[in-house]
């Protein structure tokens, strides 16, 4: 098979030492795997099924990864979900080993929650612009400037940043946790996504100071073009992930995590939706609501250059081929295995565990399978 090509991705790197906390432009790279032919896909999928069993491993996948990996996870008793449910599922599953198809912070969270399990990723270098844009030393300096605030970090951060936090949240539970802290009179330091932080501050009225990071995918959705698309499809409801800019969120009928957007589409009487989140989600949305029409929200105006084209370059690094490679050799060589420094892991554990306990206590789940329609989708796709 051909080797993957390399893509350069520009992202915001906020600098806390600058007087106005400005964002510096920075660059990272992502590897673009070569798409398999139809016969290669079938062979790779069969091989991955056999290897998952042999390795006593379960596949935990995010909605944004390749549709073949999502199907494989469903067919082998794994999960396809948002980052809250991925964390819970991996922690509670009885398999000895986990393979996390997503980005690095998801693999790290699983390892922190289950240090006794071996955790692998199809490509360990799949990262996230929010994680890259929040270096631990700079983040520590930001926290030191505001010792009176409760530190709440989004899941999309490194283990070292989580080690400095009081709470971790995902987009499925951020509003509830910040409302809870606000009701106790707490002031909040939030990192790293400025749009999600702004959205939560507006909704809850909490006093929040925000790290100025952004997601390369969601930051690209454009309100003006979205308004034009709404005019073209006046019957369409707009589904928006809150990592999108405020002007885009303002046009939404449903704002929420990936799972909440899928549920929003299922539960709505509307038949047409404009979707402002990574287009990898369309696979599961179409399965969850097969009679409905989903249109991607615009990512750029005329002549503009789209950084992500609504697909996360790092989520795209996950493929059947590198999953098989990791299952075949990673257990012996350590390639693709997630390691977190034990001291950092112990410190980071507290804020993640606090979130999961809060979720359990309040009955908040990142599981779209809890709704009847998606459960039907899973029917007939039991363990291979
Ligand atoms: P969810 O927690 O909603 O799945 O979001 C994770 C993410 O990385 C969105 O870009
Ligand atoms: Fe990070 Fe954005 Fe990719 Fe989600 S979509 S993993 S926030 S870069």
How would you characterize this protein structure?
The chain is of the alpha/beta class and 384 residues long. Helix content is 41%, strand content 17%. 1,3-dihydroxyacetonephosphate (13P) binds next to loops. 1,3-dihydroxyacetonephosphate binds next to loops.
Fourth-level CATH superfamily of the largest domain: NadA-like
CATH architecture of the largest domain, please? Answer: 3-Layer(aba) Sandwich
Distinct small molecules bound, one entry per kind: 1,3-dihydroxyacetonephosphate, iron/sulfur cluster
Low-confidence stretches: 369-384
Distance between the termini: 26 Å
Structural class: alpha/beta
- Helix % is 40-55%
Over the alpha carbons, how many angstroms does the gyration radius reach? 20 Å
What pattern of helices and strands is seen along the backbone? EEHEHEHEHEHHEHEHEHEHEHEHEHEHHH
Count up the helices: 16
* Sheet with the most strands: spatial strand order: 4-3-5-6
CATH class of the largest domain: Alpha Beta
